[in-house]
Amino acid sequence: MYKISEPIIFDTIDLNTVPGIIITGYSTYNPPSNNLSIAAIALDNRSMTVSRNEQAKKIIISGLIIRTDRIFLETSLDTLNGIIKKINKLLNVPLRNSRYEFRNVSYSNMVIEDVKGGMAKFSIEFICSDPYSYDTLLTTALPSTNITGIPQSLLVNFTGNTEQVPIITINAFVLEPETTEKSITITNPVTNESVSINRVFTDGEVIIFNCDTRKITVNGIDVDYSGILFEVNPTVTALTINDTFTTRNFNIKIEYYKRFI
Protein backbone atom coordinates (compact mmCIF):
# COMPACT_ATOMS: atom_id res chain seq x y z
CA MET A 1 0.00 0.00 0.00
CA TYR A 2 1.40 3.38 -1.03
CA LYS A 3 0.92 6.09 1.59
CA ILE A 4 1.39 9.81 1.01
CA SER A 5 3.07 10.97 4.19
CA GLU A 6 3.48 14.62 3.19
CA PRO A 7 0.70 16.96 4.35
CA ILE A 8 -2.42 17.25 2.20
CA ILE A 9 -3.87 20.46 3.60
CA PHE A 10 -7.43 21.62 3.02
CA ASP A 11 -8.47 24.84 4.77
CA THR A 12 -5.38 24.71 7.07
CA ILE A 13 -6.04 21.10 8.21
CA ASP A 14 -3.84 18.19 7.12
CA LEU A 15 -6.19 15.38 6.09
CA ASN A 16 -3.52 12.87 7.15
CA THR A 17 -4.03 13.92 10.79
CA VAL A 18 -7.61 12.61 10.91
CA PRO A 19 -7.49 9.37 12.98
CA GLY A 20 -7.37 6.33 10.71
CA ILE A 21 -7.09 8.32 7.46
CA ILE A 22 -4.41 7.23 5.00
CA ILE A 23 -4.10 9.30 1.82
CA THR A 24 -2.99 7.00 -1.01
CA GLY A 25 -3.25 9.30 -4.03
CA TYR A 26 -4.42 12.56 -5.51
CA SER A 27 -5.04 13.73 -9.04
CA THR A 28 -4.50 17.41 -9.82
CA TYR A 29 -3.63 17.15 -13.50
CA ASN A 30 -7.15 16.91 -14.85
CA PRO A 31 -7.42 19.76 -17.38
CA PRO A 32 -10.06 22.39 -16.62
CA SER A 33 -13.30 22.53 -18.51
CA ASN A 34 -13.48 25.22 -21.19
CA ASN A 35 -16.05 27.75 -22.22
CA LEU A 36 -15.83 28.24 -25.98
CA SER A 37 -17.28 31.20 -27.85
CA ILE A 38 -18.23 30.18 -31.39
CA ALA A 39 -19.33 32.60 -34.09
CA ALA A 40 -20.55 32.19 -37.64
CA ILE A 41 -18.23 33.18 -40.46
CA ALA A 42 -19.66 36.00 -42.56
CA LEU A 43 -20.98 34.96 -45.98
CA ASP A 44 -20.25 31.33 -45.15
CA ASN A 45 -22.20 28.39 -43.70
CA ARG A 46 -19.35 27.51 -41.37
CA SER A 47 -18.31 28.81 -37.94
CA MET A 48 -15.14 29.17 -35.88
CA THR A 49 -14.06 29.45 -32.25
CA VAL A 50 -13.23 33.07 -31.39
CA SER A 51 -12.26 32.70 -27.72
CA ARG A 52 -11.66 30.13 -25.01
CA ASN A 53 -11.85 30.58 -21.24
CA GLU A 54 -10.70 28.00 -18.71
CA GLN A 55 -13.37 27.16 -16.20
CA ALA A 56 -13.26 24.91 -13.13
CA LYS A 57 -11.06 21.85 -12.77
CA LYS A 58 -11.67 18.66 -10.83
CA ILE A 59 -9.31 17.38 -8.10
CA ILE A 60 -9.62 13.86 -6.70
CA ILE A 61 -8.12 12.71 -3.38
CA SER A 62 -8.30 9.01 -2.57
CA GLY A 63 -7.41 6.96 0.46
CA LEU A 64 -8.24 4.40 3.11
CA ILE A 65 -9.76 4.49 6.56
CA ILE A 66 -8.39 1.83 8.90
CA ARG A 67 -9.90 1.64 12.41
CA THR A 68 -10.45 -1.21 14.84
CA ASP A 69 -14.24 -1.38 14.41
CA ARG A 70 -17.23 0.16 12.64
CA ILE A 71 -17.91 2.73 15.37
CA PHE A 72 -14.40 4.20 15.10
CA LEU A 73 -14.71 4.12 11.30
CA GLU A 74 -17.87 6.22 11.48
CA THR A 75 -16.18 8.64 13.89
CA SER A 76 -13.34 9.17 11.39
CA LEU A 77 -15.85 9.72 8.58
CA ASP A 78 -17.74 12.27 10.66
CA THR A 79 -14.50 14.14 11.34
CA LEU A 80 -13.48 14.03 7.68
CA ASN A 81 -16.90 15.26 6.55
CA GLY A 82 -16.69 18.19 8.96
CA ILE A 83 -13.35 19.24 7.45
CA ILE A 84 -14.05 18.91 3.74
CA LYS A 85 -17.64 20.12 3.32
CA LYS A 86 -16.67 23.74 2.70
CA ILE A 87 -16.43 26.08 -0.26
CA ASN A 88 -13.79 28.46 -1.66
CA LYS A 89 -10.90 27.24 0.51
CA LEU A 90 -7.21 26.57 -0.20
CA LEU A 91 -5.90 23.09 -0.99
CA ASN A 92 -2.14 22.74 -0.48
CA VAL A 93 -0.33 19.65 -1.86
CA PRO A 94 3.20 18.58 -2.84
CA LEU A 95 3.86 19.11 -6.57
CA ARG A 96 6.93 19.62 -8.77
CA ASN A 97 9.37 19.29 -5.83
CA SER A 98 7.62 22.14 -4.03
CA ARG A 99 4.32 22.94 -2.33
CA TYR A 100 1.53 24.20 -4.58
CA GLU A 101 -1.85 25.55 -3.63
CA PHE A 102 -5.17 25.52 -5.42
CA ARG A 103 -7.48 28.44 -4.71
CA ASN A 104 -11.27 28.63 -4.43
CA VAL A 105 -11.57 24.89 -3.85
CA SER A 106 -14.99 23.55 -2.90
CA TYR A 107 -16.23 20.13 -1.82
CA SER A 108 -18.29 18.38 -4.48
CA ASN A 109 -18.71 14.71 -3.56
CA MET A 110 -17.30 11.79 -1.57
CA VAL A 111 -17.67 8.09 -2.38
CA ILE A 112 -17.24 5.45 0.33
CA GLU A 113 -16.83 1.84 -0.79
CA ASP A 114 -15.55 -1.61 0.25
CA VAL A 115 -16.67 -1.10 3.85
CA LYS A 116 -15.53 -4.05 5.95
CA GLY A 117 -15.73 -3.64 9.70
CA GLY A 118 -13.41 -0.77 10.59
CA MET A 119 -11.97 -0.42 7.06
CA ALA A 120 -13.15 1.42 3.94
CA LYS A 121 -11.95 3.13 0.80
CA PHE A 122 -12.87 6.71 0.01
CA SER A 123 -12.59 9.16 -2.86
CA ILE A 124 -13.16 12.91 -2.44
CA GLU A 125 -14.00 15.14 -5.39
CA PHE A 126 -13.17 18.84 -5.13
CA ILE A 127 -14.03 21.49 -7.70
CA CYS A 128 -11.45 24.23 -8.14
CA SER A 129 -13.08 27.31 -9.68
CA ASP A 130 -9.63 28.88 -10.15
CA PRO A 131 -8.11 26.42 -12.67
CA TYR A 132 -4.46 27.12 -11.77
CA SER A 133 -2.01 25.65 -9.27
CA TYR A 134 0.26 28.21 -7.61
CA ASP A 135 3.71 27.66 -6.15
CA THR A 136 3.69 28.73 -2.49
CA LEU A 137 7.20 30.18 -2.85
CA LEU A 138 7.92 33.38 -4.75
CA THR A 139 10.15 33.15 -7.83
CA THR A 140 12.32 36.13 -8.74
CA ALA A 141 11.86 37.11 -12.38
CA LEU A 142 13.93 40.29 -12.10
CA PRO A 143 16.37 40.95 -9.24
CA SER A 144 16.34 44.40 -7.69
CA THR A 145 17.39 46.81 -10.45
CA ASN A 146 18.17 50.50 -10.12
CA ILE A 147 16.25 52.93 -12.34
CA THR A 148 17.50 56.46 -12.94
CA GLY A 149 16.37 57.09 -16.52
CA ILE A 150 13.14 56.47 -18.42
CA PRO A 151 11.64 54.92 -20.41
CA GLN A 152 13.35 51.72 -19.29
CA SER A 153 12.89 48.30 -20.91
CA LEU A 154 13.29 45.41 -18.46
CA LEU A 155 13.96 41.88 -19.70
CA VAL A 156 12.04 39.58 -17.39
CA ASN A 157 12.04 35.77 -17.50
CA PHE A 158 8.81 33.96 -16.57
CA THR A 159 8.35 30.18 -16.56
CA GLY A 160 5.39 27.82 -16.08
CA ASN A 161 2.96 26.56 -18.72
CA THR A 162 0.41 29.37 -18.71
CA GLU A 163 0.20 33.14 -18.26
CA GLN A 164 1.88 34.42 -15.11
CA VAL A 165 0.85 37.30 -12.81
CA PRO A 166 3.81 39.47 -11.77
CA ILE A 167 4.24 41.26 -8.44
CA ILE A 168 6.25 44.42 -9.13
CA THR A 169 7.82 46.22 -6.19
CA ILE A 170 9.29 49.72 -6.44
CA ASN A 171 11.20 50.99 -3.41
CA ALA A 172 14.18 53.01 -2.21
CA PHE A 173 12.65 56.15 -3.72
CA VAL A 174 14.99 59.12 -3.91
CA LEU A 175 13.04 62.02 -5.39
CA GLU A 176 13.20 65.76 -5.68
CA PRO A 177 10.41 67.24 -3.49
CA GLU A 178 7.13 66.87 -5.38
CA THR A 179 4.05 69.04 -4.85
CA THR A 180 1.97 67.92 -7.84
CA GLU A 181 0.68 64.57 -9.03
CA LYS A 182 3.10 62.43 -11.03
CA SER A 183 2.60 59.03 -12.64
CA ILE A 184 4.33 55.68 -12.95
CA THR A 185 3.27 53.43 -15.83
CA ILE A 186 4.26 49.81 -16.47
CA THR A 187 3.47 48.29 -19.86
CA ASN A 188 3.43 44.81 -21.34
CA PRO A 189 4.33 45.54 -25.02
CA VAL A 190 3.26 42.04 -26.10
CA THR A 191 -0.39 42.76 -25.26
CA ASN A 192 -0.19 46.59 -25.21
CA GLU A 193 -1.73 46.49 -21.74
CA SER A 194 -0.49 48.97 -19.17
CA VAL A 195 -1.24 50.09 -15.63
CA SER A 196 -0.63 53.53 -14.11
CA ILE A 197 -0.66 55.09 -10.69
CA ASN A 198 -1.07 58.87 -10.24
CA ARG A 199 -0.38 60.64 -6.96
CA VAL A 200 1.85 63.08 -5.14
CA PHE A 201 4.70 60.70 -4.35
CA THR A 202 6.81 60.91 -1.22
CA ASP A 203 10.47 60.08 -0.88
CA GLY A 204 10.97 56.53 0.47
CA GLU A 205 7.55 55.09 -0.40
CA VAL A 206 7.16 51.40 -1.30
CA ILE A 207 4.81 50.79 -4.24
CA ILE A 208 3.61 47.31 -5.16
CA PHE A 209 1.82 46.53 -8.42
CA ASN A 210 0.29 43.15 -7.58
CA CYS A 211 -1.14 41.60 -10.74
CA ASP A 212 -2.09 38.51 -8.72
CA THR A 213 -4.42 40.23 -6.24
CA ARG A 214 -5.33 42.96 -8.79
CA LYS A 215 -4.30 45.66 -6.31
CA ILE A 216 -1.72 48.43 -6.06
CA THR A 217 -0.52 49.44 -2.62
CA VAL A 218 1.61 52.30 -1.34
CA ASN A 219 3.22 51.49 2.01
CA GLY A 220 0.69 48.66 2.39
CA ILE A 221 -2.42 50.78 1.71
CA ASP A 222 -4.62 50.14 -1.34
CA VAL A 223 -4.68 53.01 -3.84
CA ASP A 224 -6.58 53.70 -7.05
CA TYR A 225 -5.03 53.02 -10.42
CA SER A 226 -5.93 53.14 -14.10
CA GLY A 227 -5.41 50.53 -16.79
CA ILE A 228 -5.00 46.76 -16.42
CA LEU A 229 -2.88 44.78 -13.98
CA PHE A 230 -1.80 42.45 -16.74
CA GLU A 231 -0.72 38.84 -17.17
CA VAL A 232 2.47 37.88 -19.01
CA ASN A 233 3.41 34.90 -21.17
CA PRO A 234 5.74 32.24 -19.72
CA THR A 235 8.82 33.41 -21.61
CA VAL A 236 11.32 36.27 -21.66
CA THR A 237 9.29 39.47 -21.77
CA ALA A 238 10.48 43.08 -22.08
CA LEU A 239 8.28 45.08 -19.72
CA THR A 240 8.54 48.86 -19.96
CA ILE A 241 8.49 51.35 -17.09
CA ASN A 242 7.86 55.05 -17.60
CA ASP A 243 7.11 58.02 -15.33
CA THR A 244 6.61 61.78 -15.30
CA PHE A 245 9.17 62.65 -12.61
CA THR A 246 11.76 65.30 -13.28
CA THR A 247 14.41 63.00 -11.79
CA ARG A 248 14.17 59.62 -10.14
CA ASN A 249 16.30 57.02 -8.38
CA PHE A 250 14.60 53.85 -7.24
CA ASN A 251 14.85 50.08 -7.29
CA ILE A 252 12.40 47.76 -9.03
CA LYS A 253 12.02 44.03 -8.39
CA ILE A 254 9.65 41.60 -10.11
CA GLU A 255 8.52 38.32 -8.54
CA TYR A 256 5.67 35.87 -9.12
CA TYR A 257 4.04 32.75 -7.76
CA LYS A 258 4.73 30.32 -10.58
CA ARG A 259 1.47 28.82 -11.79
CA PHE A 260 0.43 25.94 -14.00
CA ILE A 261 -2.85 25.09 -15.72
Provide a descriptive summary of the structure in words.
The chain has 261 residues and is mainly beta. It has two domains: 127 residues, Elongation Factor Tu (Ef-tu), domain 3; 122 residues, Sandwich (Jelly Rolls), CATH 2.60.120. 6% of the residues lie in helices and 53% in strands. Strand 14 and strand 15 form a beta hairpin.
Quickly name the level 1 CATH class of the largest domain: Mainly Beta
**How many structural domains does the protein architecture include?**
2
Poorly predicted parts: none
Structure summary, number of beta strands? 22
Q: Compute the CA-based radius of gyration.
A: 24 Å
- Structural class computed from helices and strand pairing: mainly beta
Q: How can the largest sheet be summarized?
A: 9 strands, antiparallel
**Form type:** elongated
Helix content: under 10%
Strand fraction: over 45%
CATH topology of the largest domain: Elongation Factor Tu (Ef-tu), domain 3
The name of the CATH architecture of the largest domain is: Beta Barrel
Q: Mean pLDDT, nearest integer? A: 90
Number of helices: 1
- For the termini, the CA-CA separation is 30 Å
Give, in order, the helices and strands: EEEEEEHEEEEEEEEEEEEEEEE
